[in-house]
Amino acid sequence: MTTPPSLEVRGLAYAYPDGHQALFGVDLTVGRGERVALLGPNGAGKTTLVLHLNGILTGGAGTVAVAGLPVGRKHMAEIRRKVGIVFQDPDDQLFMPTVREDVAFGPAAAGLRGAELDAVVRRALERVGMAEYADRPPHHLSFGQRRRVAVATVLAMEPEILVLDEPSSNLDPASRRELADVLRSLDVTVLMVTHDLPYALELCPRAVVLSEGVVAADGRTGELLADAELMARHRLELPFGFVPQSVA
After folding, report:
1. For residue range 184-201, what is the model confidence (pLDDT) as tens digits?
2. If both were cysteines, with which of 3, 153, 191, 213 could 45 make a disulfide (CB 3.0 to 4.6 Å apart)?
3. Distances in Å between the alpha carbon of 150 and those of 32, 89, 124, 143, 183?
């Protein structure tokens, strides 16, 4: 029996209540264990697509399935466990007095208790290199450390797919590298929404360009970034002097 992909989006179209059409029939399949960058200019529909993955937005045309489960009311609790979204601002996710309590919050709400809960929290913090900070208040940590704890809060739920919204934003170079090391080490499917094209190239072998509500390109990240005409057409710009072909 074949394992269903982590994510399967078919014909997804969506218009907001004010009539603005954000998606015009998106098809996207992400296999288990893949790391895929979702690229595109502002207003391309990236956030709208992400909000469909765990049922925050519903009611459009088309279908979304996570690990073979259709996203809809019937499976919503399980879908929300399977799709772990790490928001751009970690302070949107960290609200408890200590790091340990933040990471324990989701699993405890799902019914874990005692030694089993402690083990899940410890493992999630170890996976992001933050185990020694378990008893610290989150607001005493650096921004980069808070972002790694936010990743741990999602990993504690053992998601099928980790969705990262601009993971490198506001990070200094050392924090950016530390987070990259963490993300590379994870055995989980990753969908990374980013404007940071070198980071996409470093971490995601595959990239999908979303533009004006449709998939405009889907291929090897290095090849897409090296296509000057494609990049210009979809308002994607590499940092000055950055040559994608120079990155192994």
Report:
1. 999 899 999 999 999 999
2. 213
3. 22, 9, 10, 10, 13
